[in-house]
Amino acid sequence: MTETKTTHSRTDRDAATTVGDDRPVLESRRRRLTAYLRHNGERICRDAAVLTTWALLMTIWVQGYGLPRWLCYVVTFVGVVGYTHVTSPWSRPYVSPEER
Questions:
Q1: What is the pTM of this model?
Q2: CB-based burial of residue 11 (10 Å sphere; 0-12 exposed, 13-18 middle, 19+ buried)?
Q3: Contact 71/62 with Cβ under 8 angstroms?
Q4: By the 8 A CB rule, do 77 and 58 touch?
Q5: pLDDT digits 0-9 by tens, 4-29
Q6: Closest by alpha carbon to 32, among 76, 83, 92, 78?
Q7: Contacts (Cβ under 8 Å, ≥6 apart) of 28
Q8: 42, 37, 27: which is closest to 95 by C-alpha?
Q9: Long-range pairs for 19-25: beta carbons < 8 A, 24 or more residues apart
Q10: For 39, left (φ over 0), alpha (ψ -120 to 50), or beta?
Q11: How distant, in Å, are the alpha carbons of 72, 79, 80 from that of 86?
């Protein structure tokens, strides 16, 4: 495994060092957050929309049929857990310095 180091600028503390899996090592937490949100932003928004819609529909369904409120929580929780098992996890396009 050859480790190469590429610096973007003098003031950039995020020396993009490549490791075995070709993801850059980002030193700055701000840069890591920005890279993570850019990489997963669409998925995060889509997942939030799906889960919000599910919770809203379950609330309307439970209230519409006059079912107990606890059932709404159970059905919503089961739906959220099921959704997280069906979808793939969000990924990180970088490596943290602690992982080197």
A1: 0.66
A2: exposed
A3: yes
A4: no
A5: 444 444 334 444 444 457 888 887 77
A6: 92
A7: 13, 14
A8: 27
A9: 19/95, 19/100, 21/95, 23/92, 23/93, 23/94, 23/95, 24/94, 24/95, 25/94, 25/95, 25/96, 25/97, 25/100
A10: alpha
A11: 21, 11, 10
Which tokens sit at 26? 């980002």
Tokens of residue 48, six digits: 């939030």
Tokens representing residue 35 in the block: 């890279």
The tokens for 79 are 């739906």
From CA 3, how far away is CA 11, in angstroms rounded? Answer: 21
Average pLDDT of the residues in 57-62: 94
